[in-house]
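Re: your question about ABC transporter permease

S., sorry for the slow reply, the queue was backed up all week. Below is exactly what I fed in.
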Amino acid sequence: MDFGSINPVILLASLMVASTPILLAALGEMVVERSGVLNLGVEGMMITGAVCGFIVAVETGSPTMGFVAAAVGGAALSMLFALLTQVFLATQVPSGLALTLVGVGLASLLGQNYVGIKPPSVADMPIPGLESIPFFGPVLFQHDATVYLSVIAVVGIWAFLKYSRAGLILRAVGENHTAAHALGYRVRMVRVAAIGFGGAMAGLGGAYISLVRVPQWTDGITAGIGWIALAIVVFASWKAWRVLIGAYLFGGITVLQLNLQAAGAKVPVELLSMSPFLATIVVLVVISARRHGASNAPAMLGRIFHASN
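Result:
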């Protein structure tokens, strides 16, 4: 195996690209769960965003319009989940699973005429003055706008949840929806807004896969990343900065295994391909054993709110 063929600069720069869709989807799901809602339909929203973004980008020639369409598509599908769980009071777990099945099937239907088509390229946006810094410049400051926005989103969501009145209300709803309702807060509206935001973020993550990371459309293009995003929220104990660490950890393992395959590692390719998912399982098992993650979970997570309570 030729380790010399692995360029650390390219490896780390690729890590940020590979982590971006996971980070976007996990941040959105974290906000949803902080409101007390468990949406297992992240995979469905991601792949819906991927196909919506791809189609619009191809038809308009504008990747920006593609990302906008992806956010709208993911949010629109999430409203189906909101309708089921917040209006009809359906159980959240099967509703989320149904959402994933609907999203995967819908994406397959919409994308069947776009297989093999190349979308318009997304331009990099090197940061002047920083892009030329040795080592750190190519790793951190020579990416497209979505990579930078995903990192900014971590800070923005952290500040929103910690310092803004709306963020405090959202957290209050997630911790005790009965008390929040008694204080006059509109629990269902808060949760619908959170669900829509989570859908939009998942859609953006899906579009990043189809337009940047793997610039093409194929069925199942998200390849389980939505499920990893769900696991990362638990790994992160519902904290934004830990979501960043978890997403970059998974992205790093993904990129590393691809580089090891290219370097001719004497390990079965199937085992290398499984490594990111195995690492996620190991992390979740460790967290469960220590019971740290469970203690930080929103108290109302997954519970149905009845206004008559």
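The mean pLDDT is 90. The chain has one domain: 3-295.

Happy to talk it through on Thursday.
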